Amino acid sequence: MTQLPTRRGLLFGTAAVSAGALLAGCTSNESSDNDSDKADNNQPAADDKPGKAVTIGFAGPQADHGWLNAINDNAKNRAKKYSDVTLEITEGSNDTAQQIGQIETLINKKVDVLVILPADGKALTQVGLKAMRAGIPVINLDRIFNSPQAYRCWIGGDNYGMGLNAGTYIGEKLKDKPNARVIELAGLDNLELTQQRTQGFDDALKNYPNIKKVARQAAEFTVESGQAKMAQLLQAQSDFDALWNHDDDQGVGALRAIEQAGRDDFLMVGGAGALSAFQAIEADNSVLKATVLYPPTMAASAIDLARALGQGKGVGGMAEFEIPASITLYSAVVDKENVGQYMSTGFE
């Protein structure tokens, strides 16, 4: 999950416009297929005019995380909506050499467009360049290639924005509390995305001089690591007012540790948008009060963009004849006030 952070002045709208909304008028056709997953049901309806047949190759990493599995599901189910789209999807791998081989197979099949979520953007830049030089436009999904020449369009989430919005939400909740203390349960520290989320969080807290971040612990985006690292934080910090957890999957473990410790004296904000987090927010019976989105619906929008490229179309609602070079999705804050609106997008 990476890259291309943007600033937003308005952080707390009840709705966020995803890239898919821009693509609503982009040449598509509704299918009678009702097998789409929940995350795709609220995608904008496309127009009913089938266009040129397009074969889209989709290559992503191994779906070993709830968010990555949702990425695959969104791509598959979005493609099913179009009678003029054929989706060639690879098995997925976290081994860069294997993923490169899978993409080269798609290039050799002469697919019309490629959608690639690289396991490692730097390592896969050359195969992105190879596709582009072969005349196959690439939609680079989320983890960005090192060179803009390796893709026609990048679409992904806003890691800095996640931290910024989480920090602002917590700041507004604690702005009247003297000497407020917050802690942070981060993700993998060797990933740039983790550093971006922390930077956004720290920058937001600068606007609240009464708040001090007193501890930070890095986990590994897993339930087990979330539980273990949260237990360590709780043992080390007996008094704090808020927690920001970077990832809802590891947040499941974090909540277990919190419950086992019998703690309910602080508020927690999660990250990504898992169904379990939405359900906990709706139930309002735990410390988890909000989460900031990193929407896997970006994969559905990537299919829309790939289809538009294959058919030589632009994006509905925009004056340009071509699709944009990059689209950064907004990290909306979901709390009890608006969770019902986002429930159908939650991933498991």
From TrEMBL:
PROSITE patterns: PROKAR_LIPOPROTEIN, TAT. Pfam families: Peripla_BP_4. Residues 35-51 have a biased composition (Basic and acidic residues). Residues 56-313 form the Periplasmic binding protein domain. Residues 27-51 are annotated as: Disordered. Residues 1-24 form the signal peptide. It is found in: Cell envelope. Keywords: Signal. Belongs to the bacterial solute-binding protein 2 family. This is Substrate-binding domain-containing protein. It comes from Streptomyces flavalbus. The lineage of its organism: Bacteria, Bacillati, Actinomycetota, Actinomycetes, Kitasatosporales.
